[in-house]
Design brief:
This protein is of the alpha+beta class and 229 residues long. The protein contains nine helices and eleven strands. Strand 4 and strand 5 form a beta hairpin.
Length: 229
């Protein structure tokens, strides 16, 4: 699989892509795996995602977890380590299994120091992600569970590039930090509106515009234009 399948890498020139690729190797990420858990926060590798999607998870001291964002082929995880920032406060949960190109943070850090344009592309992406996390925070704070679920399904569909999502009610309850019964009720309401369908363990996105409309009241928006950063 070509490294340019990652849209962040695709923004680089061909020469710059070759420089990054010379330090990278292709790996497989399996759904349910966790990168950089609370016992080992240090993420010494950066992952440029191809067809996998990864949830940014925050975990409180009491053990409660919450999904605050999701990344797919438009971006990467662990970039902070290459930019010299403190250890990140979240872990990464693989939601959709797939492939990624991985590089040691020290190697990428050196490459960024020597190539200002690559550094600029990565910095713009991190800035864009800050905006996305702020939007997600507003949704978590003020959004009704139906709106939050609709928002997560939109992001999951876009990140995995699929209208069929392998997501259980229990998993969604964990990610959104709510009771399982609340997810079941929200799923049933979205089904009644014709926005989604599915069966046990699978959710089919039937009407993406309908889901987007469900989130607009709080100003949340689809990330289809994320390549504009």
């Amino acid at each position: 699989m070509k490294m340019s399948c990652n849209k962040l890498i695709a923004k680089l020139t061909k020469e710059e892509q070759k420089k990054v690729e010379s330090f990278c190797q292709l790996v497989t990420l399996r759904a349910g795996e966790i990168i950089g858990d609370s016992q080992a926060r240090e993420c010494s590798k950066i992952y440029f995602l191809c067809d996998a999607s990864v949830v940014l998870m925050l975990k409180s001291d009491s053990g409660h977890a919450l999904g605050v964002g999701i990344i797919g082929s438009e971006g990467a995880i662990g970039l902070g380590a290459a930019l010299g920032s403190p250890q990140e406060s979240w872990s990464y949960l693989i939601q959709t299994g797939g492939t990624a190109w991985t590089v040691n943070s020290q190697d990428l850090s050196l490459l960024l120091q020597q190539n200002p344009n690559i550094l600029m592309v990565m910095a713009k992406y991190i800035s864009h992600m800050s905006t996305e996390l702020a939007s997600m925070s507003m949704m978590i704070q003020f959004g009704h569970i139906n709106s939050r679920l609709a928002h997560w399904l939109i992001l999951s569909s876009e990140r995995s590039q699929s209208m069929q999502l392998s997501l259980t009610h229990q998993y969604l309850a964990l990610i959104l930090g709510v009771r399982r019964v609340s997810i079941t009720e929200a799923v049933n309401e979205l089904k009644c509106k014709g926005f989604i369908g599915g069966r046990r363990g699978v959710i089919d996105v039937l009407d993406i515009r309908g889901l987007i409309g469900q989130t607009l009241r709080l100003g949340a928006k689809s990330d289809r234009n994320c390549q504009s950063f």
